């Protein structure tokens, strides 16, 4: 029995591998492929959101351990104490 649908993986120019559904004539099924690509994008954004949340929780944990408040993190840097404001001499090689 010949399969009615085929799934192939294509390489997107951005470097991402995408599954594409083909019918019996090896033509893409547009509506389901659009749905799959949209679902993959949503899943990727959900993963990035979860990663951001984990990093923020880690920052908040370390700040609370050191007694630093979030307001102190939002302050601008004190430019007088920064080492980057010193002029450096550049020697030619």
Range of strand content: 5-15%
Q: Number of helical segments?
A: 2
Which strand order spans the largest sheet, edge to edge or round the barrel? 1-2
Number of domains: 1
Q: How confident overall, as mean pLDDT?
A: 77
Indicate the low-confidence ranges by residue numbers.
none
Query: Total number of β-strand segments?
Result: 2
Based on helices, strands and strand pairing, what is the structural class? Answer: alpha+beta
Shape: elongated
SSE pattern? EEHH
If you compute it from the alpha carbons, what radius of gyration comes out, rounded to the nearest whole angstrom?
26 Å
Helix content bin:
40-55%
For the sheet with most strands, the description reads: 2 strands, antiparallel
Distance between the termini: 74 Å
Could you explain how this protein is built, in words?
- The structure is a single chain.
- The protein has 93 residues and is an alpha+beta fold.
- It has one domain (6-85).
- It has helices spanning 30-66, 70-74, and strands at 6-11, 17-22.
- Strands 1-2 form a two-stranded antiparallel sheet.
- A hairpin with a 5-residue loop joins β1 (6-11) and β2.
- The chain is elongated.
- The chain starts with 5 loop residues before the first strand and ends in a 19-residue tail after the last helix.
- 0% of the residues are buried.
- The model has no long low-confidence stretch (mean pLDDT 77).
Write a compact overview of the structure shown.
This protein has about 90 residues and is an alpha+beta fold.
